[in-house]
Amino acid sequence: MNALVFSMLALVVSRLDITEEVEVAERKGAGHPDTICDALAETLSRNLCREYVSRFGRVLHHNVDKALLCGGRAMPAFGGGKVTNPIRIFLAGRAATNVGNERIPVEDITIEGSRAWLKANLHALDADRHVRVEALVRQGSQDLQSLFSRGSTQRNPLANDTSFGVGHAPLSALERLVLAIEQGLHGRDRAHDRLAWGEDIKIMAVRSGEGVKLTIACAMIGRFLNDMDSYLQQKAALAEYARERATEHGFGDCEVAINAADDAASDSVYLTVTGTSAEAGDDGQVGRGNRVNGLITPWRPMSLEAAAGKNPVSHVGKIYNVLAKRVAETLVEAIPQVSAAQCLVVSRIGAPVSIPDLIHLRLATKDGVPPEELRERGAEIVSDHLGRIPELVGELVAGEIQLY
């Protein structure tokens, strides 16, 4: 970054106190209705980016960060079950649908991309029969298209919103545990390993002092279970898996509850046909689930932005959340005196994305080092990341950054 931009940084540095006796961390898995909405919105954005680049050599204006999942109806049963009314997913937003006389097949891109993601990520869901995807994407407003075009022409994208992004580092042991459990479950060979475990997983972790409680919901799939005994055996196996991960992350004192609302005596258990609660009345929406770091962390600063589906070129609600996370990580990695960091980045609509209106760094330091003494090094790190925003945009377009 050039010296002029460096000197224009509105940077505030202050002390961070991260001592907490109680901590809460949550994650919603890939099959959770909210995560499905995030995933399909982001899939649509990435596919639009690729179509635009293929046709026109650059990403065109779009924001497709509005999605709603309306749950269907199902009749789960041990050894079988069926979906009686399909899940309905509405993907909405604004995008360049026509350029001159050339039409962009936005509806086809929306539906085909959504079905591909569902087939790849939900092993018991029939994406052709169990789901109806509806595209409600329209041409964007003229003022925002113009703002986007001005930035593209100048090769210096202009922020299309006044918003902020936040990030923190390092993740706590509890946060790493929550990620490890769900990502490990999703990363297994789901077509052969524990077929009864669906992808609709929700983990709530609560730490009080050294003790941890894990409440885990997992949609069990009826056709892979013979009876109630089989169901209870799978619950016990999942609890053991969670306890092993907790031990690996330093939590020997860990209480685990799986599908805590079950009442086996009355045959009321979390049984599904497809492995997601979306099949039978649970709805979903973009932005109600995991933040950019994959977690929901009420003890940490969070943005309410729905990053998934926003355009990766000029929408700071997407870019700045990834940027702030990376700045915080680099502060901890690159400055020996910093033990933990939080970063807040604020934009102003119409200003260059690379020149935020405000950056606030909160630093927890070692040996009583005053955070202000680290201001210059912090500014260098921030400036470096701002200068590499084009690389970040490329990673977003390529799908190399997980946002939920």
TrEMBL record:
Gene3D superfamilies: 3.30.300.10, S-adenosylmethionine synthetase, C-terminal domain (3.30.300.280). Keywords: Transferase. It comes from the Bacteria. The keyword DNA damage does not apply. Its EC number is 2.5.1.6. It is an enzyme of class 2 (transferase). It holds the Pfam family AdoMet_Synthase. PANTHER family: S-ADENOSYLMETHIONINE SYNTHASE (PTHR36697). This is S-adenosylmethionine synthetase.
